[in-house]
């Protein structure tokens, strides 16, 4: 698939079939990720490939975040039944695709590389992954939100120091055909500077 075609056609797809994905395709997606641009070749990314029962790692993270948030609220008491229901509902979030790749930034210690550039590099890696998956006939959605950045999620994945989760790429064969999208023409957001 032509790269321009992939960029224009790729859409986030939240409804994915539970059909397993060949290991070779997963490796192609990860290979595309590590070719993202990164300042001083720090390669600041980490990946967790979760399928089958392995998705429970993410499910536990979602559950721990939800329980911690519920217990920190105004009414901090949860019954065992309420906690179990909260745990069950949140663990299911990890099962919405047959494959989930968690992506984290692991900033280098090199002082010449600002941390914001390490995040930019990992975000580029995510884009590469999603474009590669699209070119392979797979659908993806980059899931983020408050639970992604919560200390309980960081702890669940063993992140420390400046490391932080940047999102979860849900991958599978599309269950639906994505709708066409439109963008504001670049001319409306561009200034040409020649002098």
UniProtKB/TrEMBL annotation:
Annotated Pfam families: Nitroreductase
Q: Which principal EC class is assigned to this enzyme?
A: oxidoreductase
Q: Which cofactor does it need?
A: FMN
* Segments passing through the bilayer: none
Record-linked CDD domains: YdjA-like (cd02135)
User: Record's Gene3D superfamilies?
Assistant: NADH Oxidase
The EC number(s) attached to this protein equal 1.-.-.-
Name the domain of life this protein comes from. Answer: Bacteria
Q: Which residues form the Nitroreductase domain?
A: 7-173
Family classification: Belongs to the nitroreductase family.
Give the PANTHER family listed for this entry: NAD(P)H NITROREDUCTASE YDJA-RELATED (PTHR43821)
Kindly provide the name given to this protein in its UniProt entry: Putative NAD(P)H nitroreductase
Q: Which organism is it from?
A: Paenibacillus plantarum
